[in-house]
Amino acid sequence: MVKNRRLILRRRPSGNPVPDDFELVTEPLSEPEPSAFIVRNYFASLDPAQRGWMDDAPSYFPPIKLGDPVRATTVGIVHASANKSYKIGDWVLGLNALEDYSMVQPGGFTAPIDVSQVDSPTRFLSGMGAVGLSGYFGLLEVGKPKKGETLLVSGAAGAVGSVVGQIGKIKGCRVIGIAGGADKCRRLISDYGFDAAIDYRGKTVDQLAGEIATTIPDGANIVFENVGGDVFDAELMNLAPYARIVLCGLISEYNNPSKIGARNIWQILVKQATLTGFLSSDYVDRFAQGGLQMAKWIAEGRMRIDEDIQTGLENAYPAFMRLFSGANTGKLILKIA
Amino acid sequence: MVKNRRLILRRRPSGNPVPDDFELVTEPLSEPEPSAFIVRNYFASLDPAQRGWMDDAPSYFPPIKLGDPVRATTVGIVHASANKSYKIGDWVLGLNALEDYSMVQPGGFTAPIDVSQVDSPTRFLSGMGAVGLSGYFGLLEVGKPKKGETLLVSGAAGAVGSVVGQIGKIKGCRVIGIAGGADKCRRLISDYGFDAAIDYRGKTVDQLAGEIATTIPDGANIVFENVGGDVFDAELMNLAPYARIVLCGLISEYNNPSKIGARNIWQILVKQATLTGFLSSDYVDRFAQGGLQMAKWIAEGRMRIDEDIQTGLENAYPAFMRLFSGANTGKLILKIA
Which end of chain B is least crowded, N or C, by CB within 10 Å? Predict the structure, then answer.
């Protein structure tokens, strides 16, 4: 009998998740339900969005139910199938869970993937996956960068931010990244080609706002926001008139039970700026197209995608927490098998 | 010799303005400078925006200089002129100051007005002025209301909010207003034709959010925001997917040295909503057109404009403070002469 290890959400985290919020259980693997298939998960994407799904709060997906495994995007191989469109041995991408095997009813975000296109199936979770394509569609469709504009990116060394900055450069923008720590700031310039990098660590909102103002005295035409809180407040003090702000993530807020939000939202009024909430799920039908463009840029050496691959379902909790400590260097991925 | 009383900004207010922040001085009136004219101010508009102009902070107009009179939109009659386009006795509208007489260099917001069109020249400060037209252009051009949509308006009994709600009804929306106190809520329905009114007073953010959710379970397609702070946070918990938020004012924040901002901005992300800062100054070249439409609706009895006219430059301070206590019933105007 095949065993299936599953990381169950036992309790909704209050602030920072702790190990006891989760339990790794082992269950026998069932047969595929009618029209479903079972996927052997090889790699899972670890994303800030998963923290939001653990809360009982209105969102674009229902909260993860207590007792259910933690929802995650995975890539894997069909292990057993009762659906003639998915054959044993096929590689598939889908919104599944942190578990060895997932029962999949096709539809939604499930799609076959052609791993012969890429050097590693993890590419479908990084540059060509929902995270890389969040940067791609968020910047191109909402930010609408124009040559010569100034683009300010927070969480710039992260999986989304590094893609956004590189696309900004391809589109002819001046790109400034905000990141935590001198190492990340160095990497923004040396690895991802940003024009300037600002370290937010150890600075008050006023100090950070002042440093941004020194770097871009005319303000940002586009802000790509991944962080929220103090960093966002400092950025808001540096908007150019009619700035477009792409709200893609708020990682500093997800573990904070008393949200800071945006104290300087009045700057959106006086600068006649626009703030738009962006979810890549709206662009799923264009993922293949976006993924091809990303693959082309990667092949041409114009786009660098770093992956931070942690190993083992039993390490899912410490691996996930790397997102919030800022320890991850590149797209955080959990190797399950 | 003609004397000119002027309300001077002596000190930048910290939080709520106090009487000592201002001084009413009397100066001799000079002759018109070359190409300028002197207007005898009859009525001045008292607006929340003036509070912002008293701070030394980046905004769409420079801060009022200490020692200068408090900037205000006024209507008045040309008293003396060195400009052949403006003759003694002409009525004019302009961005002047709280003073008996203003020296005006034509341009900017200065425009002749035809008071024969209206029952009172104050109409050019209320329904047909920048305030009424903020509601007009903000809702129509940014909110883009469609028949059958739900429109949520804060500060709904105020000069902008009451116009927004009435235009929302004309455009076929379901209109819900948020206001402070039972009297204002009654007036929203009886005087301005709102479908429902919610009193925010004495309620926590969660309580107010719950009351809004009971009234509009599917959320608001459009939020027209005049208030900010707790009221805005409660509204943000009640967005329909892809909601459009028109950010027109944040009156609860202007006297608050530690801004609340928008703690629930994460809802803009998960609902893929758009928040746009709106200033009527972008639409000055269409004011005449908007004013005509407003005048037509007023004449047809489809638009009610209330004015709260306080008298005397010496009463400017207590009159202005009515905006922040919520005492004003309709567009607040100061009669100077």
Answer: N
Q: How far apart are CA B211 and CA B203, in angstroms?
A: 10
CA atoms within 13 A on the CB side of B31: 3
Phi/psi of residue B90, nearest 5 degrees: -70, 140
Does the structure show a pLDDT above 90 at A171?
A: yes
Structural tokens at position B281? 């100054």
Q: Is the pLDDT of residue B108 over 80?
A: no
For residue B218, what pLDDT is reported? 97
What's the CA gap between A265 and A275, in Å, rounded? 10
Q: Where in chain A is the domain with CATH 3.90.180.10?
A: 3-126+306-335
Lowest mean pLDDT among A147-151, A241-245, A298-302, B255-259: B255-259
The DSSP letter of residue A262 is B
Question: Can you give the length of chain A in residues?
Answer: 337
Look at strands B91-97 and B111-112 and give their pairing. antiparallel
Residues of B with a Cβ under 8 Å from any A Cβ are 52, 58-60, 228, 233, 237, 247-250, 253, 258-279, 282
State yes or no: pLDDT of B58 exceeds 80: no
pTM for the predicted model, two decimal places: 0.89
Whether B277 sits inside 8 A of A263 (CB atoms) is: no
**Contact of A303 with A297, CB cutoff 8 Å:** yes
The ipTM assigned to this model is 0.88
Q: What superfamily does domain B3-126+306-335 belong to in CATH?
A: Medium-chain alcohol dehydrogenases, catalytic domain (3.90.180.10)
Contacts of B55 in chain A (CB under 8 A): none
Domain B130-281 has CATH 3.40.50.720: yes
